[in-house]
Write a structure and sequence with these properties.
Blueprint lengths: L2 E8 L6 H5 L2 E6 L9 E2 L2 E2 L34 E9 L8 E9 L28 H5 L42 H7 L64
Antiparallel strand pairs: 1-2, 1-5, 3-4, 5-6
Length: 250
């Protein structure tokens, strides 16, 4: 179990650790899979590198896993950026770090994107046994990112939309699975990935987008504060009133 902290800074700023602390995108689950039997101690059993084609966007809360998808902010100036991964999986007592170098273009740096407070934490993560969530959040701030073309927006607001490249299989190899044989047994197409660095596969059938999110679909989406309530599109959340305990003796 455990969490993953994702942060994004311009290349050059990545040489100073504090820059990542002040530019967090979100904190997500190291291992989290809504399907029964698919998460073992936080490690994925299968498919390990996200869903094939667009099924990621069809599964409740799958955006809470670090290896599904992430939205690039709209306000970034064109340039090269470093995406940092920080996690202490399961019983690890120290953080493990990795990174990816991204070239980003097409942003609008004039957008109003000032933010305060910590980055959002994904729902339902399996807690790690050595490093608590508070250590991931320590000294951190959500970066001044806009996830909407017109303003702040929500990191996962477009999670359930069909991606622009649905013919690309995002998975790499069964070698990353904690159950290597089961990974192949459950999806014979995995054996067709002969080049782990270019895992292209053509999806079978039509790519059908999932339904638009609503305030009655039982899923926390659409900028909601809680499931089907709060945020800019749904009614405010409220707590059910409770009757005071009557401890009188009759």
């Amino acid at each position: 179990g455990g969490w993953v902290r994702l942060a994004l800074v311009p290349e050059g700023q990545h040489k100073v650790y504090e820059h990542f602390e002040k530019n967090v995108l979100k904190i997500v689950c190291y291992g989290h899979d809504e399907r029964k039997g698919k998460t073992s101690y936080g490690d994925c059993v299968h498919p390990c590198n996200a869903r094939k084609d667009v099924s990621t966007w069809l599964t409740k809360y799958d955006g809470n896993r670090y290896d599904t998808t992430i939205k690039i902010p709209y306000n970034l100036p064109e340039g090269v950026y470093i995406l940092q991964y920080m996690s202490a999986m399961s019983a690890h007592r120290t953080f493990y770090y990795s990174c990816a170098r991204l070239k980003i273009s097409g942003g609008n740096p004039s957008l109003p994107c000032k933010r305060a407070g910590k980055a959002p934490v994904a729902f339902g993560c399996m807690a790690g046994t050595a490093v608590p969530l508070s250590k991931y959040e320590e000294n951190t701030k959500m970066g001044d990112f806009c996830f909407s073309k017109t303003g702040l927006g929500d990191q996962d607001a477009d999670m359930r939309k069909v991606p622009v490249n649905p013919s690309c299989d995002p998975r790499i190899t069964c070698q990353l699975s904690v159950q290597y044989k089961r990974c192949y047994d459950e999806d014979n197409n995995m054996k067709d990935i002969t080049d782990a660095w270019d895992p292209q596969q053509v999806c079978k059938g039509d790519i059908v987008p999932p339904p638009e999110p609503t305030c009655e679909d039982g899923i926390k989406n659409n900028g909601e504060l809680m499931v089907d309530c709060g945020g800019p599109n749904c009614e405010a959340c409220y707590e059910e009133p409770t009757e005071p305990v009557d401890d009188r003796i009759y």
